[in-house]
Amino acid sequence: MSAEAAGSEQSEQAGAGAYGAGPRADGGGGGLERINPSHLAPPTGFSHAVRAAPGTLVFLAGQTALDGSGKIVGDGIVEQFERALTNLLEVAAAAGAGPSDLAKLTVFAVDVADYRRHARELGRVWKRLVGGDFPAMAVIGATRLWDETALVEIEGIAVVRER
Fold first, then answer.
1. How sure is the predictor about 15, in pLDDT bands with cuts at 50, 70 and 90?
2. Helix, strand, coil shares, percent, the chain, to 5
3. How far apart are CA 78 and CA 12, in angstroms?
4. What are the residues whose beta carbons fall under 8 Å from the beta carbon of 43, sequence distance 6 or more?
5. pLDDT, the chain, mean
6. Which pLDDT tens digit goes with each residue over 26-81?
7. How far is 117 from 158, CA to CA, in rounded Å?
8. Of 112, 105, 106, nearest to 143 (Cα)?
9. Over 70: is that where the pLDDT of 24 sits?
10. What pLDDT, in 10s, does the model give residues 105-144?
11. Rounded-to-integer distance, Cα 75 and Cα 57, Å
């Protein structure tokens, strides 16, 4: 997700300065520590790094805006992003991972300029579906995706710890 996509800056982490390394003060995040060194540009909508405590790695295949019948739904990037993220979260849940267990996501977009234009809307979708835990993320421009009508695909890695 782009820097603007989250819609708000990350909150200060316990004992680490405004954007420093440190575990979340509330103990959440499934044993993931978001690391954002203060000498780097402040991350908004992503973390520079995520360190995972020992757990089970769950590799989440790329998800597009496919509905249950295998048809891409949504005419624009925002609608397709929401469906792709929902699909990814459903797959993660089936593997025992929640939104706060997401350690790394890669977003593939066929039109990165369009993605950037809708960054605030995408950030609102993220906040509604995932919350304020930001994994390490990247947005990569793709010429096209597997399904020709797909505008975005999201893949990820989650770390599930014994609860």
1. very low
2. 25, 25, 50
3. 28
4. 3, 10, 19, 36, 134
5. 83
6. 334 557 888 888 998 888 888 888 888 788 899 999 999 999 999 999 999 999 99
7. 28
8. 112
9. no
10. 999 999 999 999 999 999 999 999 999 889 999 999 999 9
11. 33
Written as one letter, the residue type at 2 is S
User: How far is residue 152 from each of residues 3, 22, 55, 63, 109, measured CA to CA in Å?
Assistant: 17, 32, 29, 8, 5
Tokens of 79: 């609608």
> Which pTM was predicted?
0.77
Report the run of H or E that residue 128 belongs to, with start and end: helix 119-129
Distance CA 23, CA 80 (A): 32
33/46 Cα distance (integer angstroms) = 13
The residue type found at 52 is: A
Q: What are the tokens at 111?
A: 């039109």
Which residues are CB-neighbours of 116 under 8 A, at least 6 positions away? 2, 4
Say if CB 34 and CB 134 are below 8 A apart: yes
Q: What is the length of the chain?
A: 163
